[in-house]
Amino acid sequence: MTLEHSENNDKVGRLGRRSFLATAAAAAGSVAFARDYGPNAPPVRYPEPDVVVLDEERFGKYKQGNSPIQRLYHSKNMLWAEGPAWNGVGRYLVWSDIPNNIQLRWLEEDGHVSTFRHPSNNSNGNTFDYQGRQISFEHLTRSVVRYDYDGTRTVLANSYAGKSLNAPNDGAVHPNGDIFFTDPGYGGLMDYEGRKAKTGSVQPYQKEAIYRIEASTGKLFKLADDIHKPNGLCFSPDYKKLYAADTGASHYKDAVENIKVWDLTDNNTKLANGREFASMKMELNGKEVAGFADGIRCDVDGNIWASAGWVGDGYDGVQIFAPDGDRIGQIKLPEICSNVCFGGTKRNRLFMTGSTSLYAVYVQTKGAHIT
User: Fold this and answer.
1) Which CATH architecture has domain 17-362?
2) 125-161 burial, b for 16+ CB within 10 Å, e for fewer?
3) Would you say the pTM of this structure is higher than 0.90?
4) What ranges do the domains of the chain cover?
5) What's the mean pLDDT when you consider all of the chain?
């Protein structure tokens, strides 16, 4: 996801990223985040204080008492980290730095970080299919692409109904091989992370929507557009539901900050009964605030782990929702969190891309899906 100002939005108005964050944080009575993640930072006294249990019965069991939040990588040159995806065979994490037009890779064996792909066509989200091939969602080319084992780049989708896609953002692969993805259009609204469309519209080419690429035919189907700007998405553990974060409040007055859910029907080919799953509103320092969920992932018990940001200290990081939509836990970070994924050898490590850093923490659950 990328937020950009819009004259259509009273909440953001003409504010850019930094001024919006500062204003929202001040309104919430927040102060600067004091935690130091630098090389000389003091040790963390267990249990990790910034993994916050809001519901002891439903979230306490997931907090690993002797695991700290670790900043695995930070660079003053990294501008907006996004799209983490875990490769179990290679034991590495790949993620995007959209403005810098690169993908980076972190190796589990020694923590080494290197440039994985440059240029990356301003890729945002990444995932892997069930054959281990990387799928990337590119802003610059407005395409969904696959990288085969020999490095060949194949375009899987770049248009619908004779018009270009806006800027594919995030996606997930169904066990049948179909690829579900979102197209909110942020990369088509600015040159900073893609290529600004000449239309001057918050819908660069067509209505924002969720799509499905059919594995057997390669055909592209629009599944749902009853959402303002669909961003991160994931399946429920049984693949009977699809969740998507709505970040449309960045540009639309009538949009609300929430996560939506649909039922998968007709042999997993259609979405039905779209509804709110969870609201991103919460009380902070005696005031109601609402930031944005961006990337989301589901664990084996059906809980949704959502990146959260654009409010400030006490809100930004990760928020965890039970299967019924109740907020049951938080992970506080000193940066806006853009996306999350489960990984590691046992798939019990939560990786979090936080603006200019990569964070991770072990938890007492596992990701429901391969990445």
Assistant:
1) 6 Propeller (2.120)
2) bbbbbeeeebbbbbbbbbbbbbbeeeeeeeebbeebe
3) yes
4) 17-362
5) 92
